[in-house]
Design goal:
By secondary structure, this protein is of the alpha+beta class. The chain contains 3 helices and 6 strands. The two termini are 19 Å apart. 20% of the residues are buried.
């Protein structure tokens, strides 16, 4: 693994920790101002809407884990794809997800910031993928 790829793995871990902190300021440290979340339920969601939902308590994350499968750094762009699991609450109801996640990063002033997160439900465990 290259130093840039390790830095992406570290950025991904920091992003996960920020999300379960439920602190929009900590999350903002890990994402670009234009971050987009793409979900199967709603398609592209502006990052500001996600942060607003977290700030209001509408969306709460209790756990978030990810096993990175593919990590690539291509100049000042990079991506991490892996299998993720998370739990929490949405509008007071419990949520749980098992999904494939791809985070696309851009290096800004020496730091990797997430530009886009794309979620795909994992139908069943696939140890070969």
């Amino acid at each position: 693994m290259t130093a840039d790829e390790q830095a992406l793995v570290d950025a991904e871990a920091a992003f996960n920790r920020a999300m379960i902190s439920n602190d929009p300021a900590k999350i903002r440290e890990c994402i670009s101002a234009d971050w987009i979340l793409v979900t199967p339920e709603r398609g592209p969601i502006p990052g500001a809407a996600v942060l607003d939902a977290i700030a209001s308590g509408t969306l709460v994350h209790d756990t978030m884990t990810k096993q990175s499968r593919v990590v690539r750094a291509l100049g000042d762009t990079g991506f991490v794809t892996g299998r993720g699991h998370n739990t929490g609450w949405f509008r007071g109801d419990p949520i749980s997800a098992d999904e494939w996640i791809t985070d696309i990063y851009r290096r800004v002033e020496g730091r990797w910031l997430c530009e886009l997160t794309h979620l795909t439900p994992a139908a069943a465990p696939d140890e070969k993928a």
